[in-house]
Protein: 3-phosphoshikimate 1-carboxyvinyltransferase
Amino acid sequence: MKLSSAPCVSYWANPRVAKTLTLKGLTSCRGTVDLPGSKSIANRALLMAALCGGVTELRHMLRSDDTQRMLEALRALGVTIEELNATTVRVTGCGGAWPLQPDELYLGNAGTAMRPLTAVLAATSAAPVCLTGDARMQQRPIADLVAALLEGGAAVEYQKQQGFPPLQINKPLQGGTIHVDGSASSQYISALLMALPLVSAPSHLILTGEVVSWPYIELTLAMLRDFGIKIEQHERQAFTISGGQRYSSPTTYWIEGDASAASYWLGAGVLGGGPLRIEGVGRKSIQGDIGFVDYLRKMGASATLHDEYIEVNGGELIGIDADLNAIPDAAMTFATLALFAKGRTAIRNVANWRIKETDRLHAMATELRKTGARVEEGHDYLIIDPPAQIKHAQIATYDDHRLAMCFSLLGFSEAGVTIEDPECCAKTYPNYFSELQRIT
Ligand SMILES: O=C(O)C1=C[C@@H](OP(=O)(O)O)[C@@H](O)[C@H](O)C1
Ligand SMILES: C=C(OP(=O)(O)O)C(=O)O
Structure:
C-alpha cells in the first residue's frame, strides 16, 4: 500500500480564526436529531444530475464546505443549479457537454469532488482543465487514479508535485482495459465507475491491491443504477462497462441522512442514556457506515435500527477489537468511545486514515493520550487503553471535521474537553455543535 503523503504543511496555515469550545458536564442526550444529508451521496448526486440530459431535483441536500466545492465547480462548468430552499436544489444537466470551459477548478479538501471530477472531466472535457485544492488536498495522493487514466489513453500532467494535485487534464480518456490500485482509496474506483460509461469505447476495469472502504464502491454502483447507468460487476475484481452511455434523470432524488455523522449521535445517545431518535438513515441505508450500529451493539450499546431511523438508549460500554476498514469515517468515533469503555479497544486495518483530512492515526493517538489514555499507534491500527479517569484536554483538530466531532463526546466526561477550531466541522456538518447544545 502506498500511503505516503507529501511533506506536511502545518495546520496553523489554515486561515480560519482559531477559536475553542469547551464542553463539560453533559449528562443527558434525549429527543430527536435530524441528520443532514450524506456528503458522499450529495456530491455524487450533484455530479450525476449534472451529467444527465434533463432536470433533477435533489432533496435533503447537504449544505457544507464539501458540497459547496462540488456545486461551485459544476457552476463554473456552466451547469445551472437553482437553490429552491435550504435543502433542495434543481440541477439542469448538460449531458456531459459542458457549456463553459474554465481553466481551473478549486475543490478545497473535498475528496468526493477532486477524485470524481478528475475522472469525469478526463472523459468529458473538450479543453485542458486544471484541478486544484487547498494545502491538504495537495498532500493527498492521486497517483493511482492518474495511472489508471493514463492507461485509458488520457494525458494528465502534475502541476507541482508528482502524484498530487494540482493536475491538468490535457487529452481525453478513451477506455479499454484499465487497472486501478484501490489500496489507498476507494474513491479512485468510484471515480472511474462514474467516468467510463461516458467514453465511446467499452472498458474493462480491473481492481488491483487490497481495495479499501469497499461499501463506498457499492454506494457508487447503487447510485449509478438510479441514474440509468449499467455496469457489469465480476465479484470484487473487475467491472465491464459499455461505452457511450447516458446518465438519465430520476427526476427527483432523495439524499439519505449522513450515516457517518449518525455515529456522533449514537455515541452521545449511549453516553447520555437516551432515549435518542436519529432521523434520516436506517436499516434501508445504502451507506456502509450504517454498519457502525452493529459494532456499537457489540460494545454493549442499546441501539435499534428501524427502516429510516435509529433509536439509542444508553448502554455500558466494553472495549472491542475490530477490523474497521469498511467504515473508515465512523470508525474514528470508536476511538473516543473507547475512553468510556471497560477494557481495551483495538481499531484495525485503517492505514488509509493517514491520507485523509490529516494523518488521522497519528492525530488520534496524540490527542487521545492527552486524556490520560495509553495508546499504541501502529502502521494501520490504534490500540487504546482508557485512563482510570479521563483528564480534561485541549484537543487540536488539525482542520479535520471528524476529530472535532468525535472528541465532542468527551463533554460527557466529568473533566470535560476543550475543542480547538470547532468550526472545521463545516466540511460536512456546519451546525453540529449547535445541535449538540440543543439536544444535550
Ligand atoms: O467515496 C466516498 O464518498 C468516500 C470514501 C471514503 O474514502 P476512501 O475510499 O479514500 O477511504 C471515505 O473516507 C470518504 O469520506 C468518502
Ligand atoms: C475522508 C473524508 O473526506 P474526503 O471525502 O475528503 O476523502 C471524510 O469525510 O472523513
